[in-house]
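pinned: reference chain
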Amino acid sequence: MKIIKLFTLSAILLFPPKIISQEFKLGKVTVAELEQKVHPKDSSAVAAILFEKGQNVFDYDQDNGFTMQLEVTAKIKIYKKEGYDWATKKIRYYIAGNGSKEKVLISDATTYNLVNGKIEKTKLKGEAEFDEAINKYWAQKVFTMPNVKEGSIVEFKYIIKNNSIGSPRDWNFQSTIPVNYSEFKMYVPEYFVYNRNFKGYVSPKIIEEKNNRSIQYTYREGRNGVVSGSASQEKLDFIETRTAYIAENLPALKDENYVNNIDNYTVSLSQELSMTKYPNSPFKTFSTDWNSVVKTIYDYDDFGPELNKTGYFEEDLKKLLVDSKTQEEKIWTIFNHVKSNVKWNNYFGYGCDNGVKKAYKEKTGNIADINLMLTAMLRYSGLTANPVLVSTRSNGIALFPNRTAFNYVIAAVETPNGYILLDASEKFSTPNILPLRVLNWSGRLIRKDGTSEEINLMPEKTSSDNVFMTYNIEADGKVTGKTRRQSVDYNAMITRSKISNLKEEEYLEKLENGNNKIEISEYSKTNENDILLPMVETYSFTGNNFCELIGEKIYVSPMLFFTNDKNPFKQEVREYPVDFSYPFAEKYNITIKIPDGFAVETLPAPAAVTMESNLGAFKFNILANGNTLQLAILHQINEAIVSPEKYEMLKEYYKTMIAKETEKIVLKRI
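pinned: its structure tokens
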């Protein structure tokens, strides 16, 4: 299924000797721009990027060799108060300090306003900038532009200095507000070749030229590790390829319901170093295809070698596996052992942080520490187990072969019936029930011999919710009843996580408020921690907001707080796939007792809708037997990801379902 349109760079425009581009400079603010009340092509826009330009250049010095510097200038128009957030900029930078540490510099930050027909400028003061830690690897420089109002224009420039040349920063041409002009320039010395990949629905214009360039640097002679005080000025001459990527008049990227990660569909450019060609040295290649990518990763000290360490767990595992005879028993025993003894420290990564031995001893580690340890134990027990590289939902889909595409790793056991996927970082996960963050299309399994295989991460088995509800309607419209909800697989994992993260009174308060202000009593739960069994919740409830009394009649939606009353698919055209995360089925068996002195005047008619290609089905049936009504409902979606081509069918399906579920039972007084 082709979901994201990818563009090849088949046409490169050459305009030597200079790259031709429009003049977009800071400080060129006009009265007309400040007077503009709405964006000319999107009147709903709260703000717009008038221009954003990036320039990635290389420098050289004796100590660090080649380094990169990204310079960004931006000019943003604020139309409405809701757009004030665009006057705050957060710039992430790497702080791990292993030679790739980054530095951010802010300059030329000014707010422009129109006051009594004249342009007023307010500059950002240094004390308005601050650094904010994100985690031990990343921090961010934050600043908020001063004196921002409706109609303001803000401008700023920032520079990111980086000693690493492996992966230039991705450049997003598109944003969640309109972008009038976006330009990215890449200046690459002849010694480097970069893979470049686009995603999104628009292909930027590309302009390329080659120029001679010289870099002056200071050379200090050294011997036996000692640098002398004498220095000389040296010059490095080389050919530089200058490429400009330009996109204009890009519409705001609209987030929609059931979108995996909107960044997957943003018009953007990503690059990674694929080859070095230093003088008098052989060519060195990096990521060219998936097999070379995974082989490179497997050979990293914090990956492959960690899988070969077994001494730290052997004695423990021998004792644990004494009674485990079958493959399933071994998997479950080892899986539970890792989950119970090593807690996730909330850091991602496919490379170990503490190392498996230290993580086992200290009972904490990152994703790689935990799941590479799990893989090693599974292998030690005689199972065919391998790591699977994953890009999480928040990280985006791994579309192109590159080492930075992944940020996570899980384990896979090969069986005659297929792969069993495992992630021991999640308390309530089970075999083949992975954390939702991992369900991101596909991963890459790596074997010991360096070969790899694409692994489907999207669930195919249906996760179900079975609801049994009985309730009484009283003559004054009050409803009292009892509900039993049984959840399995992903639905069970999600419910257990919700319960685990809150005190019971907080959880019940959310449940009450989310279900039309019902009052819950006699709440109980079963199999809360017995995760191989269905999760069951039972409670009694009272509600005063479900019935409408008009004259001598009572109107009620029979599903009460389980009614789907809003269609999540409202847009006319859907450009992105609908991502439900996993196939699901919701089944309801509802018994309704009508009040004495009333009879049924109208019941909703039975309905059945089945989508083509077995995409899903909705069934609704209600029967009357004296003063009791019996209702049976099924809502089932059989695909985790639904392509845009099926969107219209899905939209109509939901429209029909919601119309039926919101149809009223009418009771009349007799």
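why pinned: The radius of gyration is 30 Å. The longest helix spans residues 327-341.
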